[in-house]
Amino acid sequence: MTAPHSEQPAELFPRPEMTFPALRAALARVAPSRIAEFQADRDSAFTAATQHASFNPIRVFQVKWATEVEIERRPRLAARYHAALDDANALDRDDPRWRAAMDECMAVRNEARAAVTGD
After folding, report:
1. Which residues of the chain have pLDDT under 70?
2. String of b and e for 65-91 (b: at least 16 CB within 10 Å)?
3. How far apart are CA 87 and CA 100, in angstroms?
4. Is-above-0.70 flag for pTM?
5. In angstroms, what is the C-alpha Rg of the chain?
6. pLDDT at residue 9, rounded to an integer
7. Which of 80, 76, 63, 78 is nearest to 115 (CA)?
8. What tens digit of pLDDT does each residue of 16-41 get?
9. Could you tell me if 87 and 101 are in contact, meaning their C-beta atoms sit under 8 angstroms apart?
């Protein structure tokens, strides 16, 4: 028996490696409008790494963008994130539902980050 057409796949494609080319290619598939932001972040990470003689800014960059890709490559996770973000953007910060929406955004981001870091 086959799955109904309305059922979303668990993943659109396998998790990419945490390399600049792999993350950029994955981002181009799921959020091409964010490539310029990715490139600017990469430039900032390399500048900071050079200035501080530390690999940490590059690692932060990799985890940030691997997390972004992880959310978008998993349709159910992306749907949760975007629904919560839409709710948060539509509500006043004094509304208790705003906090619930922000908590859901953070839960999704934490789940995605844990998936890419193994934490």
Report:
1. 1-7
2. bbbbbbbbbbeebbebbeebeebbeeb
3. 9
4. yes
5. 16
6. 82
7. 63
8. 999 999 999 999 999 999 999 999 99
9. yes
Q: What is the pLDDT of residue 1?
A: 44
Quick one: tokens of 58? 């590059």
Per the listing, tokens 């990799």 go with: 62
The torsion region of residue 13 among left (phi > 0), alpha (psi -120 to 50) and beta comes to beta
Two tokens at 29? 């598939």
The amino acid at residue 7 is E
Q: Which residues of 43-56 are buried (b: 16+ CB within 10 A; e: fewer)?
A: eebeeebeeeeeee
CA distances from residue 27 to 36, 49, 89, 102, 104 in whole angstroms, order as listed: 11, 23, 24, 24, 23
